[in-house]
Amino acid sequence: MVQQPDDITSDDATPDGVDRRQFIGYLLAGSTLIAAAPLGSGIFAPDRADAAIPSVPELADVFDLTDLQTLAAMPTSNLIAIQIHTDGTASFALPRAEVGQGITTSTAMIIAEELDLPLDKVHITLAPARPELVFNQLTGGSNTTNSTYTPIRVAAAIARGALLDAAAILLGDNVHNLSTQLGQVIAKSGAKVSYGDLALKAAIPKSTTKHVTLKDASSFKIIGTPQKRIDAHDIVTGKKTFAMDMSVPNALPTMVCRAPSIKGTPKSVQNAAEVKAMPGITDVAMISTGVAVRGETFGQCIDAVRALQVTWNKGTEDASSDATILAALKRAELPMVLPKLPLLTKSIDATFTFRFASNTALEPNCAIADVRKDGAEIWAGMKSPLVAQKEIASKLGMTIKQVKVNVVEGGGSFGRKLFQDAALEAAEASQAMGKPVKLMWHRTDEFRHGRTHPMSTSHVRASYLGKEVLACEQRHTSISTDFTHGLGEMLTSYAAKLPAGDYTFAQSIFMLTQTTPYNFGVTTQLLNEVDKGFNTGSMRNIYSPNVRCAQELIVDQLAAQLRPDKDPYKFRQQFLKDPRMRAVLDKAAEVGDWGRAMPTGTAQGIAVHAEYKGACAAVVEIDCRPATVNRKIPEAYTGPRVTKVVFVVDVGLPVNPLGLQAQMMGGIMDGIALALSSSLHLENGHFAEGSWDDYHYTRQWNTPPELELVVMPTTTGVPGGAGEFGVAASFAATACAYARATGTMPTEFPINHQEAFTFTPLPVSPPIPQSPTNGLQTTY
Amino acid sequence: MPTQKFTLNGKPVAVDVEDDVRLLWVLRDKLGVTGPKYGCGLNVCKSCTSHINGKAFNPCSVPVSDIKATDEVTTIEGLADTVGSTLHPMQEAWLEIDVAQCGYCQPGQIMAAVAKVKQVRAAGREITDADLDEIRNICRCGTYHRIREAIVKGAEGM
Ligand code: FES
Ligand code: FES
User: End of a domain among B76, B110, B125?
Assistant: First the structure.
């Protein structure tokens, strides 16, 4: 439990001349030692809150989404707390969602470091929705470590200080003669006492303020070292529990029969009684998004969903197809405002199309809900639990206090779990049926009714004269991205600080995240969004992968025009603004053996990206020779093969290099998929894809056999973002490699979108397919 | 309701459920064995991969009545027991390479890896890049490259 600081006395005078590593936190009253620090407090970065916001267009260079999220959190001085237990362990409830990105491991490392405790003695859980945190409980924008790093260290350091004080009394020694090591306080005399033995003695009856100095980075023993995931053992033995694996009494499997088209809603059910009488089925109830069925097993729910006869209201996009959307985007593109340029200026002008993509994780949307008359309890993997709590309460006609929202570890997110689609449905179904439910989406629902990364176009025009680039303009036009998960809420409070005031949330986020990292003279980047009829969201980043891919392809074109050697690497080296960017670029070129001789039909591509307070670069090698493109794997889309990737990343301070490499690896697999193979095809209001064999996310046969991930040493000393960071540069480098291997710059992504289907689309009615029965014929 | 009988992770089980319910749901919803994950129910994603009589199969696509009383079904929970240890060498390799991210696909990946290594060994050879390319299991977190490393490593211990 975390106590609020309203009843806190101060026993410390504010020290004179507060230095950079001095912070304020609290010792909280409790049965054992509890140390706390305000999350996102202004005290830990006094220069931040007053940071001047520069004018557009280069806003994101100095004040990006990471700052905004950190800054927006500042007014809510609410506490995160570390508790020391009598068994010598420390526990901490992280107000963020672990969905595979490794933040429980990196958080445990940060605590272990500052507390001088072995890593396996730190236990991290995920905090349930804590309304008092206001908008400070959102896991997004790869912001977790940046926003929690210092507050967690402060709390841990205060705990360590209290342990030292308690040990001094116990040992009758002076604190200055004591040190801490691996969970013990050690006196110069050699006397030792464990944290466990001090946990009760260090507990205090009344909360107090404490000043503390953090460890110097030069003495770090854990931060910056490769550490394996703390949940790895549970994962490889099948013990890790996802929402779908939880057993909540009487929460029986529940699924939803959905409309044949996007956002279609149910009008009436013809055969509810018949379906309710099917084997195993206990309930049938109409909810706002479809007809829910509850039964003994999910298999029987599938049967019931398929048997339901439902009359549907129209969806929101029934008349839409890929072609109509592309035309709408073309109409909505904002005009270029070409600056006055000298005579003889030449330009490169191209428009790129990025198709709808699915942000489905491998764990489908799932939530458990137990709704009673006087209250409700929900369990789900959620990155925005406060918004979930509010929406569920309003759907159920309850107060926020009546709805308890538990955050369960998620099986991947990629943006999907910023929304609580399944939790809302589960709550509604549980209320309608008067029973607990465990609601799961079918895979086919995930592709057809789940959130998508919206289709977009990016028009880039670069103007040059002689050896200089005079201007680079970009007009990004997209189907609307849904930001109702709380980022918008966060922005509201800072709306006054945003440029010109007249921008939409989406445009503001675009400007806070997008930059042109090169010295290209006058640069402008503008976004326009249309059509709110789709289920959308971010997908391992919001705009950057598409925006940067378009830019980097144009950069290669400029290199071909402006440099006699036409070298994309040297061109970037020459025009990049930031030394950190040049450093990762040089490293990637060196490790990737840039410029090595390669056979016709194969090539290297190089690209960079800056975001989340970091810099990264990728060198990709691709094989586009027919023998490779047409290689045969049963029921697989093969296509060009990325044969090697070298990826270099500088995140400022790599807390866990092993985990950081893992995140980059995942981002690279996404980048390859976006460039070469994965998209959704919109046909008459629904997506054609309904299975992983239709939607070609990277599989083993598309995976680069060679992969090298280089983590740069600490640069800024502040941890930047990681989860989404790897996608943009690897996507762009793959596209650039493809262009160089084939001699044609692709303008359509993924490059295979217009090819004939490799699959027969599943019917839309019934909405989900029956499971096969021939599983014993495919054993190996 | 018919009673279905088979051996699960070395122990005999009997469960009352209709014949056509796919084994995955019998394991998960009836027996509470949640290591095998649902990712599609279509024999595509392979996240439910388990073993039947030592061979990889996908219980989402097998009606429970097709499982004979003499069949031995092994899920990730029972894998280590098949080598009489607390962890199978493939699980050890997974830990050593730190493969997992969200972990959702990993039980299926490990079960597939063990079967794949056994399959190529039965053919008298060691695992190659071409064999690895044929593994169909989806990992949406993109851990594919570490999976490849871990399979090679795990094979050494098998
Ligand atoms: S759930 Fe069995 S193969 Fe996908
Ligand atoms: S580790 Fe998340 S799906 Fe593979």
Answer: B76
For residue range A717-771, what is the model confidence (pLDDT) as tens digits?
989 888 899 999 999 999 999 999 999 999 999 999 999 999 999 999 999 999 9
**CATH architecture of the domain with range A9-236:** 2-Layer Sandwich (3.30)
User: What average pLDDT does range B63-76 have in this prediction?
Assistant: 98
Q: Which of B46, B102, B135, B136 to mutate to test the pocket of ligand 2 (most atoms within 8 A of CB)?
A: B102
- Render pLDDT for B86-130 as a digit per residue (tens, 0 to 9): 999 999 999 999 999 999 999 999 999 999 999 999 999 999 999
Contact status of A410 with chain B (Cβ, < 8 Å): yes
Task: State the Cα–Cα distance between residues A536 and A290, nearest whole angstrom.
Answer: 19
What are residue A715's phi and psi, to 5 degrees? -115, -65
> Is the Cβ of B97 closer than 8 Å to some Cβ of chain A?
no
Contact criterion met (CB < 8 Å) for A299 and B56 = no
Omega within 30 of 0 (cis) for the link into A750: yes
Ligand 2 centroid to residue A780 C-alpha, Å: 22
Closest residue in B to A444 (Cα) is: B40
Class of domain A243-316+365-440: alpha beta
In this complex, do A699 and B138 lie within 8 Å of one another by their Cβ atoms?
Answer: yes
CB proximity list for A102: less than 8 A, separation 6 or greater: A229, A656, A659, A662, A663, B101
Q: Are A10 and A21 in contact (CB under 8 A)?
A: no
Let me know whether B105 and B146 are in one domain. Answer: yes
Report the CATH number of the A323-356+452-749 domain. 3.30.365.10
Check which CATH number belongs to the domain holding B133 and give it. Answer: 1.10.150.120
Judge whether A698 is closer than 8 Å to chain B, CB to CB: yes
pLDDT over 90 for what percent of chain A?
70
As a dihedral over the C-alpha atoms of residue A482, residue A485, residue A491, residue A495, rounded to 10 degrees, the angle is 60
* Chain B residues within an 8 Å CB radius of A362: 37, 39, 45, 47, 102, 104-105, 138-141
Ligand 2 pocket member B106 (CB < 6 A): yes
Q: How far is CA A30 from CA A8, A378, A603, in A?
A: 13, 28, 63
B97 and B65 part of one domain = no
Are residue B72 and residue B104 in the same domain, yes or no?
no
User: Phi and psi for B57 in degrees, rounded to 5?
Assistant: -155, 170
The reply to whether B38 and B95 lie within a common domain is no
The CA-atom distances, in angstroms, between B97 and each of A42, A125, B153 are 40, 24, 9
A244, B38: Cβ pair inside 8 Å?
Answer: yes
Please check whether residues B88 and B53 belong to one and the same domain.
Answer: no
Q: Where exactly does CATH 3.30.365.10 map onto chain A?
A: 9-236, 243-316+365-440, 323-356+452-749
Q: Give A252 to chain B, closest Cα distance, Å.
A: 8
Phi and psi, residue A737, nearest 5°: -65, -40
Residues of A in contact with B31 (CB under 8 A): none
**CA distances (Å), origin A179, targets A35, A119, A183:** 19, 18, 11
More confident residue, A142 or A310: A310
Distance from CA of A593 to the nearest CA of B (A): 20
> Residue B23 sits in which domain range?
3-76
Put simply, whether B52 touches A (Cβ < 8 Å) is yes
Report pTM. 0.92
Give the domain CATH number at B37.
3.10.20.30
Q: Is the per-residue pLDDT at A133 higher than 80?
A: no
pLDDT for position A612: 83
From the CB of B147, is ligand 2 less than 6 Å away?
A: no
- Judged by a CB distance cut-off of 8 A, whether residue A763 touches chain B is no
Cβ <8 Å between A700 and B132: yes
Lateral strand order in the sheet of A184-187: A178-181, A184-187, A192-194
Q: What is the pLDDT of residues A630-653, one digit of tens each?
A: 999 988 999 999 999 999 999 999
Same domain for B125 and B143, yes or no, is: yes
pLDDT for A328 equals 97
Number of domains composing chain B: 2
If one compares B36 and A387, the residue with the highest pLDDT of the two is: B36
